[in-house]
Write a structure and sequence with these properties.
Layout lengths: L1 H23 L4 H25 L3 H4 L2 H25 L4 H12 L3 H13 L2 H27 L7 H13 L2 H15 L5 H26 L8 H25 L5 H11 L7 H7 L3 H28 L9
Helix pairs in contact: 1-10, 1-14, 2-7, 2-9, 2-10, 4-5, 4-7, 4-11, 5-7, 5-11, 6-7, 6-10, 6-12, 7-8, 7-12, 11-12, 11-14, 13-14
C-alpha cells in the first residue's frame, strides 16, 4: 500500500499546490485560466502528437480498445439517462448533464498523469484513444440530448452543426489530426521542432494537475446531495466497472491498455463539466460534483491500483 500511495500522493499534492496557490492569492483566477489555456492549447496537443509519432501507426490504433472503451462509456451514459429520466422524472437537459458527469473522464488533466505514473509511456497513446471516444462520441451525444431538452434550443440539425463546428476547433482533436497525418505520411519532424514538442509534452501532466487544484478553489459542497452523490458514484465506481466488463467481453487487448483504461475511467469528470452544467441550469450540482469527485478520487484511484496489483493486472514492483 505504501508503494501505491507513493504513486497517488505526488499527483494529489500537485492538485493541492494549485489549490493553495489560488487560496493564498499567489495566482489569481485569470492567471490560472491562462495556465489552463496553455495546457489545453499547447501542452496536451503536443503530448498527443508525440505519442502518435513515436510508434508505427498500426501499433497505436487499437480498434478493440476503442470499441471496449466506447461501449463501456456509452453504457454508463445511457444508464445515467434512464435513471434520471425514467426513475427520477428529471428533464432531458438536466438528465443529459448528469449522465455526462458519470461517463466522461478527465483524461487530460487527471487520467493521463495518474496512468503515466502507473503504466508509463503507453498512457500517452491511451490519452489519444480516449480523447477520440470522449470528444467524438460521449460529449457530443450528451450535448445534443441536452439541447433537445432545452425549450429554447435550435433544431436538431442546427444543434448537430454547431457541435461539429465546435469539435473542429478542439485543440486536442487538431493535435490528433496532426499526429495521425505525420505518422501516416512518415514525415520527419525537424529536430528543433521535435524538441519543442517534447518539452511541451513533458509539461502537460504537472501543469494540468496544478490547474485542476486551482479550479477547485471557491467551489462549495452544498445541498443537492442526491444528484451530486449519484454523479460521483457513477463516475468513480460505475464507469470503471462498466469499462472492466466491456474489456472482459472484447478480446485481444493488451493488459497494460486494460489497466490504463481502468485508471482513466476512474478519474473525475471532465474539467469543463461545471461550464456545461451552468449552461443547463445545473451549475451548482456540476461544480459540487467535480469538487467531491476530485477529492474522493484520491481514495478510489488508490484502491483500484491496489486491486489491480492483487489481480496481477499490473506489477507494482515494476512501476
Amino acid at each position: 500500500m505504501l508503494a501505491i500511495l507513493a504513486i497517488t500522493t505526488p499527483i494529489f499534492l500537485l492538485i493541492g499546490i494549485g489549490y493553495i496557490a489560488r487560496w493564498s492569492g499567489i495566482i489569481q483566477r485569470e492567471q490560472m485560466q491562462g495556465i489552463g489555456i496553455f495546457v489545453l492549447y499547447c501542452a496536451l496537443p503536443a503530448l498527443v502528437i508525440r505519442a502518435l509519432t513515436q510508434q508505427p501507426l498500426e501499433s497505436i490504433f487499437q480498434p478493440n480498445y476503442l470499441i471496449a472503451y466506447g461501449l463501456g462509456s456509452l453504457a454508463v451514459l445511457s444508464a445515467g439517462l434512464m435513471l434520471c429520466i425514467k426513475l427520477q422524472r428529471q428533464p432531458l437537459n438536466a438528465s443529459a448533464m448528469q449522465a455526462l458527469g458519470m461517463s466522461a473522464a478527465n483524461s487530460g488533466f487527471v487520467g493521463y498523469p495518474v496512468a503515466a505514473m502507473v503504466i508509463g509511456s503507453p498512457a500517452a497513446v491511451l490519452l489519444a484513444l480516449n480523447m477520440l471516444v470522449e470528444n467524438l462520441l460521449i460529449i457530443p451525444t450528451a450535448l445534443i440530448l441536452a439541447e433537445m431538452g432545452n425549450q429554447h434550443s435550435s433544431s436538431l440539425w442546427q444543434t448537430m452543426r454547431q457541435t461539429t463546428l465546435s469539435l473542429a476547433k478542439n485543440p486536442i482533436l487538431i493535435g490528433l489530426s496532426v499526429g495521425i497525418f505525420i505518422a501516416f505520411t512518415g514525415f520527419t519532424i525537424p529536430d528543433p521542432i521535435n524538441k519543442a514538442i517534447h518539452m511541451l509534452a513533458e509539461a502537460a501532466g504537472p501543469a494540468a494537475l496544478f490547474v485542476i487544484g486551482g479550479s477547485l478553489f471557491g467551489l462549495k459542497a452544498q445541498g443537492m446531495m442526491r444528484d451530486v452523490g449519484q454523479i460521483v458514484v457513477g463516475k468513480l465506481l460505475i464507469h470503471p466497472l462498466a469499462i472492466l466488463i466491456a474489456f472482459l467481453l472484447i478480446p485481444n487487448i493488451d493488459p497494460i491498455y486494460f489497466a490504463g483504461a481502468l485508471l482513466f475511467a476512474a478519474s473525475p469528470m471532465i474539467s469543463i463539466y461545471p461550464l456545461f452544467g451552468q449552461r443547463y441550469n445545473l451549475g451548482g450540482v456540476s461544480a459540487t460534483a467535480m469538487l467531491v469527485a476530485t477529492v474522493t478520487s484520491f481514495f478510489t484511484l488508490s484502491a483500484i491500483i491496489w486491486l489491480m496489483t492483487l489481480s496481477d493486472i499490473i506489477n507494482i514492483q515494476a512501476i
